[in-house]
Design goal:
Layout: H1 2-20, E1 24-28, E2 34-41, E3 45-51, E4 54-61, E5 66-74, E6 78-79, H2 83-89, E7 102-110, E8 119-126, E9 129-144, E10 151-162, E11 179-190, H3 193-197
Antiparallel strand pairs: 1-4, 1-11, 2-3, 2-11, 3-6, 4-5, 5-7, 7-8, 8-9, 9-10, 10-11
Organism: Luteimonas salinilitoris
Keywords: Signal
Protein name: YceI family protein
């Protein structure tokens, strides 16, 4: 019997390891996820704003060093802190949100160190144009949520892109720098029936 016990125990151990190394799905918390941006204003100052509504999910296998990200942003929720500028930005002269109501980022988590990704390699769709864009992850952490007692992850990431490549060249004739820095602060809870419903 002993010679059969070791293979059986080994098989059970491998099965348990495979079960714990499974991909985990996290749902973004809209109340704690605010994509924001920084843009030049004729070399005089830096305009900053954010988007108030977004959704998405993160898939993560920390042991294997794999995962993916999807963030969908409601472009109509742009917020400069100035109503007149918000109204202009959603209009035809810039985002044209009637035709392009959403911006999306989809990418693959990469450059894992100690179970945490250091970048996202993906594609950004804005104003109906899709281009490759790599996000640098400045901070990434997962831990039990102090209130809900379930797995909880958060990250800060950023990238800079040329907005004219997305057909957003308003102000170029006045000398505005077309580079925009996109920053995404994100928090996400492990997917459950409750998070899926919300």
């Amino acid at each position: 019997m002993t010679r059969y016990r070791l293979p059986a125990l080994l098989a059970l151990s491998l099965a348990a390891t495979a079960a714990t190394a499974a991909e985990v799905v996290y749902v973004l918390e809209p109340e704690h996820t605010f994509p924001s941006f920084e843009a030049d204003h004729v070399g005089m100052s830096t305009w900053r704003g954010k988007f108030n509504r977004s959704r998405g999910e993160v898939r993560l296998d920390r042991e294997r060093g794999t995962g993916s990200v999807e963030v969908v942003v409601d472009a109509r929720s742009i917020d400069f802190g100035l109503d007149a500028l918000n109204d202009w930005a959603i209009g035809k002269d810039l985002l044209d949100t009637e035709r392009y109501p959403e911006a999306t980022y989809r990418g693959t988590l990469a450059g894992f160190r100690d179970g945490a990704p250091t970048r996202v390699e993906g594609e950004f769709t804005l104003h109906g144009v899709t281009r490759p864009l790599t996000l640098a992850i400045d901070r990434f952490n997962c831990q039990p949520h102090p209130i809900f007692k379930r797995d909880w992850c958060g990250a800060d990431a950023h990238a800079t892109f040329d907005r004219s490549e997305f057909g957003l060249d308003a102000g170029k004739e006045y000398g505005l720098d077309m580079d925009v820095t996109l920053r995404i602060q994100v928090e996400a809870n492990i997917k459950t029936e409750e998070t899926e419903a919300s």
